[in-house]
Write a structure and sequence with these properties.
The complex is a heterodimer of chains A (146) and B (404). Chain A is 75% helix and 0% strand. In chain B, β1 and β2 form a beta hairpin. In chain B, strands 1-2 form a two-stranded antiparallel ribbon.
């Protein structure tokens, strides 16, 4: 009877062992499924980011192709701030650290922000207009004298 | 005109009058028991799908006994004791249930069909979420399956008979049928009848056991989880069924038909074969269960009750189921202490693998004490584990017991 009890306990132990082995296999399947799921989700996320990046590049290319207004007004200060002086004589390219010698342009051309340049141009234009007006007045005055 | 007496004309009464009083009493008792089973099945106290055909079968076989040409008592349903091929072939052409019995019952095919159908009912996702807790509970709930073996041996049964009747503790009908067919073929009818009778009682009996062993404050525990429950893909569940089937068949080739049937059911459920799923979970499962009940009923003739071992089997069957229930609740308490109070011990009863009855019983009891507590997921995980551990024990018994 004792031996039967021991045998039963032995079979019970074996069942526990196999049961936990089966549980470990099930856990392994669940963990593998979770990992695959995570990898798959991660993969999808990466693909989405790549897609966004491609779209961004495409938009950037498109934006660059559109001619901008201030470029047409011959405003070269952006280039100049990057060290490119398209107006320097004989050399078009990178100029930082290199003496350009005599410049034809004023300091306003090179360093003043655009609004100041516009203000300066307006001022010049007004001055020119007033000069023209003055000249016109003097001409009229001379004609009336004659 | 030849002299025809009443007993010759109405052989049901005739055989009753010609029998000895004990047999008459047994036949009358079984007729009334059959009627009671039909009534209880109709009322829903016991499983109607099994109990109504079983009860009617009991009534018919005990009323419809007739005198055979050789002078013995017999019937036109089936003869379970035939083994001679010629006699079997002759009987198969006369007894209408003999072909079904010989070709599907006595070789365990019907048990495998039922198991296949059970497989289609299992959502292994619950088991994948908490495999260790579920399997641990299921192992605890097999206490009756183990302890009944030495108890039955002390009652005077052989080791194979003891192991067969101990399987009632697993609360899995097809498993009991399969084990007793493999190990104690001469007792498989009474053991299976006892098993199915008691399995029908789990729905009504286990709530009292739970209320007796688990105080209300424990029954009302609401479990909280930090992580939301994860839903596993069908392909993961399919991989689960394939891998586990391979591992368990590799470990226990003798029980491989059971493992194969169970995991085939799971695979059918998860593989999206709609028509096959509809067939296996519907006509195959219910048809097999119905035929199982019918055959068990017609196998319950009076000689069964007069078997001196039947009383022992009745006692051992209830002992096995009670011990398993107690073991499951003990496992629930152990999990309660491991999880530091965040576990409802009632889940332990669901580990007794009567799919899905015990899981439903557990949820019903808990809902009554705390309507906000939802344990069905964990209960079903333990329930499914119970089926797997019962199959493992079947494999262990069939493999090891012959060597003891």
């Amino acid at each position: 009877m004792l031996s039967l009890l021991l045998s039963t306990l032995g079979m019970m132990g074996l069942t526990f062992l196999i049961g936990f082995f089966v549980a470990a296999i099930i856990k392994l399947i669940a963990v593998a499924a979770d990992s695959l799921d995570f990898y798959s989700a991660h993969h999808i996320e990466l693909a989405r980011l790549h897609r966004w990046q491609r779209q961004r590049h495409r938009v950037e290319r498109l934006v660059r192709q559109i001619p901008m207004d201030h470029n047409t007004s011959d405003d070269t200060r952006e280039d100049y701030s990057k060290g490119i002086d398209r107006h320097s004589d004989g050399y078009h390219g990178y100029n930082h650290g290199v003496s350009r010698g005599f410049l034809k342009r004023t300091i306003v051309d090179c360093f003043y922000p655009e609004d100041r340049r516009m203000a300066f141009l307006e001022e010049q234009e007004n001055a020119q207009k007033s000069a023209d007006k003055k000249a016109a007045q003097t001409t009229d005055h001379k004609n009336t004298k004659h | 005109m030849e002299n025809i007496d009443f007993a010759t004309l109405f052989q049901g009464f005739g055989t009753m009058m010609a029998s000895d009083p004990l047999l008459i009493f047994a036949r009358i008792f079984l007729i009334f028991l059959g009627l009671l089973l039909v009534y209880l099945g109709w009322k829903g106290v016991l499983e109607p799908m099994v109990m109504i055909p079983m009860g009617l079968g009991m009534v018919a076989i005990n009323c419809g006994t007739l005198m055979m040409p050789d002078g013995t008592l017999g019937n036109l349903f089936l003869d379970p004791m035939l083994s001679d091929t010629d006699a079997l072939m002759d009987t198969m052409q006369i007894d209408f249930l003999q072909p079904i019995y010989t070709l599907s019952f006595s070789n365990g095919l019907i048990a495998c069909f039922v198991f296949m159908g059970i497989g289609t009912l299992l959502d292994v996702g619950f088991l994948l979420q908490k495999p260790f807790a579920s399997i641990f509970l299921a192992l605890c709930a097999e206490l009756g399956t183990f302890l009944t073996v030495p108890i039955a041996a002390a009652f005077g049964l052989t080791l194979k008979e003891s192991a067969s009747v101990a399987m009632v503790g697993g609360a899995d009908g097809p498993m009991v049928l399969f084990t007793s067919l493999a190990m104690a073929k001469h007792l498989f009818v009474p053991i299976t009848v006892v098993a199915y009778l008691y399995l029908g009682l789990t729905y009504g009996g286990y709530p009292y056991l739970v209320k007796l062993l688990v105080p209300k404050r424990f029954r009302a525990i609401k479990m909280t989880s930090k992580k939301p429950p994860k839903n596993y893909d069908a392909k993961v569940k399919l991989a689960f069924s394939a891998i586990l089937c391979a591992v368990l068949c590799f470990l226990f080739p003798v029980a491989s038909p059971l493992f194969f049937s169970l995991f085939l059911g799971v695979a059918v459920r998860e593989s999206g074969m709609k028509h096959i799923y509809d067939f296996v979970s519907g006509p195959l499962l219910y048809g097999s269960t119905f035929m199982l009940g019918l055959l068990l009923g017609v196998l319950c003739d009076a000689h069964l009750l007069l078997d001196p071992k039947i009383l022992k089997l009745l006692v051992l069957g209830i002992v096995a189921l009670l011990l398993s229930g107690v073991g499951g609740i003990m496992g629930g308490y152990i999990m309660y202490f491991i999880k530091k109070g965040n576990y409802n011990p009632v889940i332990g009863i669901a580990a007794v693998s009567c799919v899905p009855t015990t899981a439903k019983v557990a949820q019903k009891i808990v809902s009554k004490d705390n309507p906000n507590s939802f344990i069905l997921g964990d209960a079903l995980g333990a329930n499914i584990s119970g089926v797997i551990t019962s199959a493992i024990i079947t494999g262990i018994y069939i493999t090891i017991i012959p060597y003891l």
